[in-house]
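Posting for a labmate who doesn't have an account.
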Amino acid sequence: MTLALDTAAQDLLFREAHTANAFTDEPVSDEQVQAIYELIKLAPTAFNQSPLRIVLVRSAEARERLVAHMAEGNQAKTRTAPLVAILAADNEFHEELPSLLPHFPQAKELFFSERPVREQAAATNATLQAGYFILGIRAAGLAAGPMTGFDFAGVQKEFLDGDHTPLMVVNIGKPAEDAFYPRSPRLSYDQAVTTV
C-alpha cells in the first residue's frame, strides 16, 4: 500500500530525518519559526486546549543561562545551535478555552477547574504538540535536536513560572556535516502493534 504523502516528503519528515547534534551557523529567522508555528498549531488536542508554549532562546545571555541547566553532554550543542526552543506545557491553558472552544465555553469549568486535571491534560496534549513541532521543523528544511537532559526545575525557575512545566529543549538549525549519529534500530510492526 502506498501513502498519500509523496516519497520525498516521507523522507524529509521521517526516513532521512534524524536528531541533529551539530548545526551550521546559518541563522534561523523569526519568519521561519512563525511559518513552522502556523503549520503545527493545527495539531489535534483534546478540547482544542493547545497548551504548548514555546520560549525562543536567542540572546547570548539567555543562552548561557540555559546552558548552565543542561546536562554536560548537551551543553556544547545547545551553546552552538543557531536557535534553541524551550517547549513547555501551560497548566492554565483553560483560561483560553472560551476563545479556543467557542461552541463549548463551559468546558473550562466543567472539566478543567481542578489544577491536577489541568496538569495531566496539559502535559499529554503539549507533548503531542511538541511532536508536531519537531515535524514542522523538518518540514521547514531544518533539523531538530530535542533533548530532555536538563534540570527541569532550574529551567522552569530561570525561564518560566509555576504555571508552566518544561517538557523539552529543542536545538534548531541547518544540520552540520557531522550532525547525525547512525540510526539506532526500531521495533518491527509485529513487536509494536497488537490487534485485539
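Reply:
Got it, the C-alpha cells are right above this. The CA atoms of residues 76 and 140 lie 24 Å apart.
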